[in-house]
Amino acid sequence: MAGTPTHCPYCALQCGMTLHDGGSEPVRVTPRDDVPANAGGLCQKGWTAAELLTVPDRLTAPMMRRGRAAPLEPCGWDEALDRITAETGRLRDLHGPDSVAVFGGGGLTNEKAYQLGKFARIALGTSQIDYNGRFCMSSAAAASGRAFGMDRGLPGPVTDLASSGAVLLAGANVAETMPPFMRHLTRMREGGGALIVVDPRRTATARQADLHLQPTPGTDIALANGLLHLALAEGLADEEYIAARTTGFDAVRTVANAYWPDRAERITGVPVPLMREAVRLLARAARAHVLTARGSEQHARGTDTVSSFINLALALGLPGREGSGYGCLTGQGNGQGGREHGQKADQLPGYRRIDDPEARAHVAGVWGVDPGDLPGPGRSAYELLSALGTAGGPKALLLFGSNPVVSAPDAAAVEERLGALDLLVVADFVPSETARRADVVLPTAQWAEESGTMTNLEGRVLRRRRAVRPPDGVRTDLEILAALAERLKAPGKWSTDPRAVFGELRRASAGGIADYSGITYERIEAEGGVFWPCPSPDHPGTPRPYLDRFPTPDGRARFVPVEHGGAAEDVDADYPVYLTTGRVLAQYQSGAQTRRVRPLAEAAPGPFVELHPDLAGRLGIEEGAGVRVESRRGAATVTARLTGAIRSDTVFIPFHWAGEGRANLLTNPALDPVSRMPEFKVCAVRLLPLPVEGDGAPGAR
Ligand SMILES: Nc1nc2c(c(=O)[nH]1)N[C@H]1C(S)=C(S)[C@@H](COP(=O)(O)OP(=O)(O)OC[C@H]3O[C@@H](n4cnc5c(=O)[nH]c(N)nc54)[C@H](O)[C@@H]3O)O[C@H]1N2
Ligand SMILES: Nc1nc2c(c(=O)[nH]1)N[C@H]1C(S)=C(S)[C@@H](COP(=O)(O)OP(=O)(O)OC[C@H]3O[C@@H](n4cnc5c(=O)[nH]c(N)nc54)[C@H](O)[C@@H]3O)O[C@H]1N2
Ligand code: SF4
Ligand SMILES: [Mo]
């Protein structure tokens, strides 16, 4: 049976898979070996992806609530869409267009992300749109933009990693977050290359590394500056490259001078010999990579943290050299494309700035509106969520592709804001925790039921193909947006055909940083994907963008001096332990999808806190016991997992579960001043053992 070649519904590796529609039998997944990212591999989430199509509580009819306290009840599409049109119309008449907000997601196809941004700007006329990618790679995007003039995940095809001589992974646990990615690193190690991992935990990834640096959460800047100090002290910097291809090095050299090895060790807890070894491995390799992910990026100083790693990569002469470079590991399925086509508060399609008059004129021309009618920049994700229902904030929210009740920082406060809205509309295919709080729920088609394009972590544009028919009663997101646009009497064209929307996206992106104008569905098919920028039909696409020059005004990469500052909330007598958060293999994000897939729910059934036996011993916490974890924002109840693989001053809670076990009841919404990224990766907590049921004594069996 041939099946339909497509890609995984989950992460940014976008592993190739074939879907076999078995008719009366369940749909089956097999890995594709013609897709370089996974070359025949899949992780457990990929293997079980088809179960998403048949989850028992799949949404198949619109629902609405007739009154604040009334339950959600099935209704017709016309009724649901009419209510949205009427209520948003009333709010806009009363309070102006910014009283209606839109929130998107990095899992949406390029076509949907593009259409959602356009819908907000010209159908609703609101500036208030942002998306969950703000919580994801926005710090890496901001730092890449200021260093290279562009933000595109990896510096080249993922297969380049196999011929690297050294890869430094800062805050990435790829063995769990994109398992087939490991094969490229394994190949590199088999060829003599070294894997260096920077993570406060000895993760599954760190266990496979040649060198593991285990810093205190929130101290990566001191570590990277310390590594740079050592590189300079040992004469390992590439002075010729620095002179020819960069600017601003002197200021960074001055900063690095102050991070002498003992000082860096004191701040980070990483022994000097390990730092020295890391620098030597990176500097002596003919090809090398420095890669960051959320562990280094999700900080109130996330942009500066990424800059500190980019400075190191630039000093070693890596970016713009074939087979070497700096990269950020994009996270969500379309984390890359989702950040290029205008669902970001400050952005228009093609990675254009919404406050740039030329960009406004170009995009307004494609949309058939007056540039003066386009709104300006809006609020960033957390600022938007925390303004909902306030005096000057939006009174209605239309949400596509996110579950902030579980995934937003300080989630209890965000939940309260959602509750203060006049109207919450959620489009989803499952009743997520956020959908359950909505006034109107719109059931959408999912991944294998519709087509479109996704841009993976390499910057390669791929085709997602429809393999099965959606259930009766659901609509695609494009159909929902078109129906609403029509009711709102919006200007412009609102096609429901992904191919037609992609055609418009190509024109809107033409001339922008993320130029897709030369990419067509046919080319993607024939060439196994096309790398942007691709400005014309005869352009080959750009697998390695910086080889000749950087897309900055003078063609040079820019060093940015950055100083260590520490976490926004440090530990103290009341909250003496660092909390960091992240992921486990079998669950995806807020868990809305994976908690419904039986083998995944069995593999990772509930929330837990990982803590060192020394800390557990001091607190009287035993393996498997209930623990109440408290921060200044709230408390979560989780199960203890003791492991020597984590620093004894730090605990880890994955964020995939709802209710009382939500890691985000604890997290600190302190925002990065540039990227507006919240500090998901470090805050201060205290831990209390919970009495075992039926016995008052804490920790008793
Ligand atoms: N199984 C699974 N895979 C996924 C996802 C998922 O939810 N589940 N989500 C996808 C998405 S959207 C994303 S963004 C990626 C994320 O992929 P990763 O960034 O690999 O995932 P995280 O677990 O969030 O964080 C990585 C590591 O950062 C470490 N860390 C914590 N604090 C610090 C610090 O201060 N410094 C450093 N250097 N490290 C620190 C944590 O211990 C953790 O092991 O994964 C994608 N893939
Ligand atoms: N504490 C802590 N919090 C975190 C993080 C962390 O490391 N620690 N990581 C952050 C990161 S990196 C991310 S990316 C966010 C992710 O957090 P969320 O935005 O909550 O991510 P998902 O769980 O993927 O939510 C996607 C929702 O949209 C639905 N959906 C999927 N595809 C579509 C579609 O095509 N159309 C529509 N209409 N709906 C769709 C899914 O069913 C699901 O309910 O979480 C952030 N939150
Ligand atoms: S690594 Fe990511 S894309 Fe690949 S199968 Fe797993 S979840 Fe899917
Ligand atoms: Mo993410």
Would you write up a description of this structure?
With 701 residues, this protein is an alpha/beta fold. It folds into four domains: 4-54, N-terminal domain of TfIIb; 63-135 and 337-531, Rossmann fold, CATH 3.40.50; 139-328, Dimethylsulfoxide Reductase, domain 2 (3-Layer(aba) Sandwich); 577-689, Barwin-like endoglucanases. Strands 5-4-18-17-16-6-7 form a seven-stranded mixed sheet, with helices on one face. Strands 24-26-25-30-23-27 form a six-stranded mixed sheet. Strands 10-9-8-12-13 form a five-stranded parallel sheet, sandwiched between helices. Helix 8 packs antiparallel against helix 11 (261-268) and helix 8 packs across helix 12.
Concise description?
This protein is α/β, with parallel strands linked by helices.
CATH architecture of the largest domain: 3-Layer(aba) Sandwich
> Ligands bound here?
ligand MGD, iron/sulfur cluster, molybdenum atom
The parts where pLDDT drops under 50 for at least 5 residues are: 696-701
Strand segment count: 30
- In terms of DSSP E residues, the strand content is 15-25%
Structural class: alpha/beta
Protein name: Assimilatory nitrate reductase catalytic subunit
Keywords: 4Fe-4S, Iron, Iron-sulfur, Metal-binding, Oxidoreductase
GO biological process, one term: respiratory electron transport chain
GO molecular function, one term: metal ion binding
